[in-house]
Amino acid sequence: MDWVSALMLLLGLLVAFMATGVPVAFAFFAVNIVGALVFLGGEAGLEQLARNSMASLTSFTLAPIPLFLLMGEILFHTGIAFKAIDAIDGLIARVPGRLSIVSVVAGTVFSSLSGSTIANTAVLGKVLLPDMLRRGYHPAMAMGPIMAAGGIAILIPPSALAVLLGSLANISISRLLIAGIVPGLLMSLLFLGYVVGRCWLDPRLAPLYDVRHLTWWQRVRPVLIYVLPLFGIFVVVVGSIMTGLATPTESAALGCVATVVAVAAYRRLRWRDLLLAVRETAQISVMILFIIVASTAFSQILAFSGAANGLLRLIGESNSSALAVLVGMLLILLFLGAFMDQVSMMMITVPFFIPLASSLGIDLIWLSVLMLIVMEVSFTTPPFGLLLYVMKGVAPPETSIQQIYLAALPFIILELFVLALLMAFPILATGLPDLMTG
Fold first, then answer.
1. Burial, 27: exposed, middle or buried (Cβ in 10 Å; 0-12, 13-18, 19+)?
2. What pTM value is reported for the model?
3. From residue 214, how far is each of 90, 93, 115, 344 by CA, in Å?
4. What is the pLDDT of residues 49-59, one digit of tens each?
5. What φ, ψ does residue 155 adopt, rounded to 5°?
6. Where are the domains of the chain?
7. What span, in angstroms and rounded, lies between the C-alpha atoms of 102 and 175?
């Protein structure tokens, strides 16, 4: 079978299974079984598929995924995350769009403590959204910053999706985690600038209100108690990676220990909350590990069938520039992001994109950061952006999905601006990892 027929068979079956509503991971498993029978030698191919699947799960580099998720779940279920948000709320004075600014700052802080964008958005929505709407904030200025700040967790370490992407692409996870810091902070600053500018030009979007008078010490004290010690967790995780004292897996373990110690110091460590955090982490981790198995096997079958090499040869013979191919890859991701979740996007594209980028000399860390930004955009891209429906779940019942779409739109534009900026200046993504490695 020639490579075109092999590619059409594998992708056609995948699209057919997904069109019938089969979950993505199981659709990939079904395609992998067919591919093993056709391209790997029948029954022997199935045995090889099983061995390869087991081997893909025994990688030490996958351990940070559940550990990073566990950090955020512990802070969420013990209530410490809510205390940190309240402390940031008390610190910010009377400025235009005050609560929207609180949501961006708190979202950025919580992103450095949680590997989950969903948990980040849900926490901010539950704590801040009711108060914002009660004070007369326009729904767009209330919901938009919360969704935007929630999505930053995909860039700022610890990011479970960054670890997953690094594992699937077989690149340095520590360099990828560090590479997301500057783009994540840049995005946060742009969000803050937009909120202040819009609310200054149109005060009706976020009416001013009397803030309870607090002394300087009353504002700073909660931050010293509930924010700085939690920032120490981020320092433990990122600092141990940057200094070379720990691998990403070891730094994730240190982060979990630091999180438990911090929660215990606040006297909020209860077995019930800890078990709930472990249970939630296990559910998400099992789903991700299923996806890793399916994606790894799919990549191998693409290689054995000749489809991957044939596609690479076709693009190579087209004499397209590296920039044109890169733009094409990002446009494909933007299109897919409107219809499927981020992990599924990785599963479908990584087996093609990474070998193609390598053959064209594209820096894989830079490409991976660009992919993460596109996936952040897809979190709020209609019609199926995941954070749109997380927001729908915490918003008042009368809030329409169209209102949520419109609230996300300005921040999608800002995220695309950061994407263009990183394409023009790759050093924004690669500079810090290069500095880290000397």
1. buried
2. 0.79
3. 8, 10, 33, 48
4. 788 777 767 76
5. -100, -50
6. 1-58+290-305, 59-269+306-436
7. 30
